């Protein structure tokens, strides 16, 4: 990507919307959750982080999973 820019953030979601560890989960009732893939083996992270996430030590830009 030119300039190495991050993909655009969804302001309602924050960093997770552009993080390679995030996984978007849509419930049967149509609500959207963001699951943090780092929570599985690192207790610093919540499995379902409260949104929007404005700062996260585990953030790494990348495709959503
Ligand atoms: S590491 Fe941080 S930014 Fe990435 S999915 Fe987990 S909580 Fe979101």
Set down the secondary structure blueprint:
Layout: E1 22-26, E2 32-36
Antiparallel strand pairs: 1-2
Kindly state the number of beta strands: 2
Number of helices: 0
Distance between the termini: 19 Å
* Sequence of strands across the biggest β-sheet: 1-2
Q: Which molecules are bound in this entry?
A: iron/sulfur cluster
Helix content: under 10%
Shape: globular
- How would you classify the helix and strand content by structural class? mainly beta
Strand/helix succession: EE
Gyration radius, rounded: 12 Å
Query: pLDDT average, as an integer?
Result: 88
Percentage of residues in DSSP E strands: 15-25%
Low-confidence stretches: none
Largest sheet: 2 strands, antiparallel
